[in-house]
Input
Amino acid sequence: MGFAEIAISPSNPTLSTLATEWREQIGERNAGFSQVRWEQRLRVPVTTLDALIDEYGEPSFIKIDVEGFEAEVLAGLNCPVAALSVEFVAGALEINDACVNHLSRLGEYRYNVVAGEQRHFRWAEWQTPQAVSEWLSAGAEGLPSGDLYACRSDHRLLLNDA
Output
């Protein structure tokens, strides 16, 4: 659908990003990024989630881990999907709140969190959009990073909990 410039950190290539403002500010807002330098640029093709769904069908799950560009990725989604996750990092939690707000416009979702690289959900009960927004606004318990999971309210994972 188009092209964008990705900034690459040669010493940490997994931290490549399309998010210019995030890249310029995250080192000041999160000490874990203070030494990261995005010294290379590359023009890359980009598309939308809607275009991918049109081509391949609705996915069972979408993982979005795009270093500060999560809200922009979700902006290209205009229909509710079954489940997805978006990365969060301290110092940029407003991005995740924007993701929750966008998903709330698409449908009814419930949320849970995996802290860092752990492999279990943080909460026994899936949270409402309001509860997770409050958690994000309060600083996400000081967690440095993790993944915010969203399941559509009719997802079997949530129905099994009932």
